[in-house]
Design a protein that fits this description.
By secondary structure, this protein is mainly alpha-helical. Among the domains are: 76-139, Endolytic murein transglycosylase (Dna Ligase, domain 1), CATH 3.30.1490.480; 161-358, no CATH class. It is built from 17 helices and 6 strands. It has helices at residues 2-17, 22-64, 86-95, 102-111, 130-139, 161-171, 176-182, 186-195, 197-205, 230-245, 249-255, 259-272, 276-291, 299-305, 315-318, 342-349, 376-394, and strands at residues 76-80, 120-124, 151-154, 221-224, 360-363, 370-373. The strands form 3 sheets. Strands 1-2 form a two-stranded antiparallel sheet. It has a two-stranded antiparallel ribbon with strand order 3-4. Strands 5-6 form a two-stranded antiparallel ribbon. It is elongated, with a radius of gyration of 38 Å.
């Protein structure tokens, strides 16, 4: 104590020697004390922030390893491509909304030594945890898309392949992109042509075709069982078409039309007529025009040519140079425009009243009635009649 007193006295004496008064000494002591308190407070705040960040980080990490949606048991088919690294796989899973955080997934799998994943198709659910998903990925997937639960697929008459792709996506685990990719898989399509040569040979020989199987996926309801592959589903559709066409192959040969040409006309008839009677008459008009070396002139072909479902066509649309545009080109074009019903196919093979030499038709879209004409003058009169009827109905 004596030593400290001596030191304090010495400090005071030194400060006096430097001209520092006792009030100033008190201020300096208060400043030092304040500085220590400020520094202590800042350090305390920093420690508190670190603790809060740590707790929040732990909660975030823990939450991110839990299911994306524990109540969502919907199956999501995920395609992991060859050569995908951990980050790429994590990104895919996050994009497909089966995990909450790709970053957490990648870190978690590395920490648990579960990053040796395989390429393939996987059936995952948003209700699965990161641990469950990692376990599935570690086992390996299938080499092609697989349906994981029983279901049905309804293909409606007059559906185009792009529409069928959307239907398949809505009613199965398969995606529209996977379906359209299969429609371009030449190896698969050739295998179908070898299996059903009567049905698909003329399609395989056709030029400038958008989809070889357009028109050959028969409109019907298909049962899709567990573990049914996408190839098996499409094969069912083609097989159904072959079964329906089998009784008509000899008649088609006698008609001097190819199966591709019959299916092409049938696909136009499908969209142009609504009743069996009109479909037979419209088929007769198309065949009369073909025999006379006239263009078929169907707007249905133009919509397919421009790959659009818009309600009206422009002058530019009508001049589209696609070989599918039968308002511009002679003949049947490359191939079918949709999947026709058996009624439309039968209409092409058994058209009615061809002897009346009808070369034109126009439909009243409000009543559904179709008017037929032998020449341009009669066709113009029918168009005027339909136009007046529609104007009167609007008034």
């Amino acid at each position: 104590m004596e030593g400290r007193t001596l030191n304090n006295n010495q400090d005071n004496q030194d400060q006096k020697d430097r001209g520092v008064t006792e009030p100033e000494q008190l201020v300096q002591k208060q400043r030092k004390l304040f500085s220590k308190r400020v520094i202590g407070g800042v350090v305390g705040i920093l420690i508190a922030l670190l603790v809060i960040i740590g707790v929040m980080g732990y909660r975030y990490f823990d939450n991110a390893t839990q299911p994306y949606d524990s109540s969502d048991h919907r199956v999501v088919q995920v395609d992991i491509p060859y050569g995908a690294n951990g980050k790429k796989i994590a990104d895919i899973l996050q994009q497909e909304k089966v995990i909450k955080s790709g970053f957490v997934f990648e870190y978690w799998t590395k920490a648990h030594n579960l990053s040796n994943f395989h390429a393939g198709y996987y059936q995952l659910k948003p209700s699965m945890s990161v641990a469950q998903i990692a376990k599935v990925l570690n086992k390996g997937g299938s080499s092609e898309p697989v349906q994981s639960s029983s279901g049905k697929v309804l293909i409606v008459e007059g559906s185009q392949i792009k529409t069928i792709a959307q239907t398949v996506q809505k009613q199965t685990d398969f995606t529209s992109a996977e379906f359209l990719a299969l429609m371009k898989d030449q190896t698969f399509i050739k295998s179908l042509a070898e299996k059903y040569p009567k049905l698909l040979t003329s399609s395989m020989n056709a030029k400038h075709v958008r989809y070889r199987l357009e028109g050959y996926l028969f409109p019907a309801t298909y049962v899709v069982g567990k573990k049914t592959t996408l190839k098996q589903l499409v094969t069912q559709m083609v097989s159904k078409t072959n079964d329906e066409m089998e009784p008509y192959y000899s008649q088609i040969t006698k008609s001097k039309m190819s199966v591709q040409e019959v299916m092409t006309l049938a696909s136009l008839v499908e969209r142009e007529g609504s009743t069996t009677k009109d479909r037979k008459l419209i088929a007769g008009v198309f065949l009369n025009r073909l025999d006379a070396k006239w263009r078929i002139d169907s707007d249905i072909s133009v919509f397919y040519a421009i790959n659009s479902n818009k309600s009206t066509l422009t002058a530019k649309d009508l001049q589209n140079t696609s070989p599918y545009n039968l308002r511009l080109h002679l003949g049947y074009g490359p191939g079918p425009f949709n999947s026709p019903s058996l009624i439309s196919i039968q209409a092409v093979l058994n058209p009615s009243e061809r002897s009346k030499d009808y070369m034109y038709f126009v439909a009243d879209l409000k009543t559904g009635k179709v008017y037929y004409a032998k020449d341009a003058a009669g066709h113009a009169a029918n168009i005027k009649k339909v136009s007046k009827h529609n104007e009167a109905a609007e008034n």
